[in-house]
Amino acid sequence: MTGKTTGRITLPKAPKEGLELGAEIYKKHKADGATSELKQLQETDWDKVGPTVVKGQAFHQEAERLKGQMEEQYRLRDAVFASVQKANSDTAAYLKGKYKNTPKTLVAWGFGVDDTPPAKKPATAKPA
0.85 cut: is pTM over it? Predict the structure, then answer.
């Protein structure tokens, strides 16, 4: 048995954790300076990629802040919408009763009126 470990490297898939890993890698790369092993990478230049990590983290923080504001706005909207939805329903019921012989009249109030006959339900086979 050798002292070699056969471990798998797991990479984060989520941006927040990926940016955190990038920050750690860049910190070590900068600390190692000219002797950094990462200078051997052929297609990745951490001296260019590294500074963008902070920008990415800032973008993520702003997105999370805006997400919180968005959720609050949806809560406020939903609170108002509940009473509007009830008023819409009450109004439709009232006008439908008043104009039961001419339902297309409700279009003037913005209602959609579908006067096509309902589709027939498909016949179900009876068990034998």
Answer: no
Burial (CB < 10 A; 0-12, 13-18, 19+), residue 121, is: exposed
pLDDT digits (tens, 9 = 90+) for 101-127: 998 999 999 999 887 888 888 877 777
Q: Which residues make Cβ contacts (< 8 Å) with residue 56, sequence separation at least 6?
A: 15, 19, 22
Look at the block and give the residue holding tokens 């860049």: 26
Hey, what long-range contacts does 15-23 have (CB within 8 A, 24 or more apart)? 15/56, 15/60, 16/60, 19/53, 19/56, 19/57, 19/60, 20/57, 22/49, 22/50, 22/53, 22/56, 23/53, 23/54, 23/57
pLDDT, tens digit, 9 for 90 and up, residues 28-78: 999 999 999 999 999 999 999 999 999 999 999 999 999 999 999 999 999
On whether the CB atoms of residues 92 and 111 are closer than 8 A, the answer is yes
Q: Smallest Cα–Cα separation from 38: which of 48, 115, 100, 79?
A: 48
Q: What SS3 class is residue 4?
A: coil
Instruction: Count the neighbouring beta carbons within 10 Å of the beta carbon of residue 41.
Output: 12
